[in-house]
Specification:
By secondary structure, this protein is mainly alpha-helical. 27% of the residues are buried. The N and C termini lie far apart (60 Å). Helix 1 runs antiparallel to helix 2, helix 2 crosses helix 4 and helix 5 runs antiparallel to helix 6. 79% of the residues lie in helices and 0% in strands.
């Protein structure tokens, strides 16, 4: 196989990865964004903007230490930018907790995702996700279930 063909095959495989990631994670990304933004249409636009920007820099993101964490950070920042300044539960969580704590609470408790799936979406280890949840429970006390 020539070098060019090998490079073309690797590029095609990496783009398949991009499309697989979008297909696998888009529903959860939209659910998260909808909790933050409180509008399903705007949540879809938020996720589309993140994934479109990701497409433009996909190869560089793949080379990063943790692509899932980079993508999650982009999603969190875009959702924050679009979030109305209302008193939603997600807004209150983000006002009280560190960003990763608030997000793991939203994904696990509010959206009902298993901790392992939430950790995977956020690009973190399962033990770290569990530690963030314990810390959130401690920080929120009786507000945790509210």
């Amino acid at each position: 196989m020539s070098r060019r063909r090998g490079r073309d095959a690797r590029t095609a495989i990496s783009w398949l990865g991009y499309h697989a990631l979008c297909e696998a994670n888009r529903p959860a990304y939209i659910q998260y964004a909808e909790r933050r933004i409180a509008d399903r249409t705007e949540a879809g636009r938020c996720v589309d903007a993140v994934l479109s920007a990701l497409q433009d820099r996909w190869i560089a993101v793949l080379a990063s230490r943790c692509p899932a964490a980079d993508i999650w950070t982009d999603l969190r920042m875009e959702a924050e930018r679009r979030t109305p300044r209302a008193g939603s539960r997600a807004g209150r969580l983000h006002a009280i907790l560190r960003p990763a704590q608030a997000d793991i609470v939203i994904l696990h408790h509010d959206l009902g995702l298993p901790v392992e799936r939430a950790a995977h979406l956020m690009g973190m280890t399962n033990p770290l996700a569990h530690a963030l949840l314990r810390g959130a429970q401690r920080d929120l006390g009786s507000q945790f279930e509210g």
